[in-house]
Amino acid sequence: QVQLVESGGGLVQAGGSLRLSCAASGKFARVNAMGWYRQAPGKQRELVATITSGGTTNYVDSVKGRFTISRDNAKNTVLLQMNSLKPEDTGVYYCNADIRALWSTTNYWGQGTQVTVSS
Question: What is the DSSP letter of 88?
């Protein structure tokens, strides 16, 4: 069974940093695009950043210059380094990945990790 397991959330003061990690486990052929989404209370889930298997990245405008997404293809892991955090970055952060099995590709979500930024 394929799973995405996240870690690294927590409580931090504004201006601080956190690093989120997500690892894909189970039986599969390869991990294609990976990314992070977040959902603030009362709001819809939004894309934060994505990265292709080749390393091409994409960020939502509000985090550009503060967040960095990276991945380790050998470990099937994606990281999100978050610097200069703001209270508006608060939310549940979800890992997302397109994972290819032998005959098909399926999109998976992690369980979510809470990030709280205090002012």
Answer: G
Parallel/antiparallel/unpaired status of strands 18-25 and 77-82? antiparallel
In this structure, the dihedral spanned by the alpha carbons of residues 97, 103, 104 and 105, taken in order and rounded to 10 degrees, is: 20
Low-confidence ranges of the chain (pLDDT < 70): none
Provide the pLDDT for residue 102.
86
Q: Within 10 Å of residue 59's Cβ, how many Cβ atoms?
A: 18
Q: Smallest Cα–Cα separation from 76: which of 33, 9, 23, 8?
A: 23
Distance CA 75, CA 106 (A): 19
How would you class 86 by CB atoms within 10 Å of its CB: exposed for 0-12, middle for 13-18, buried for 19 or more? middle
First to last CA, the chain: 40
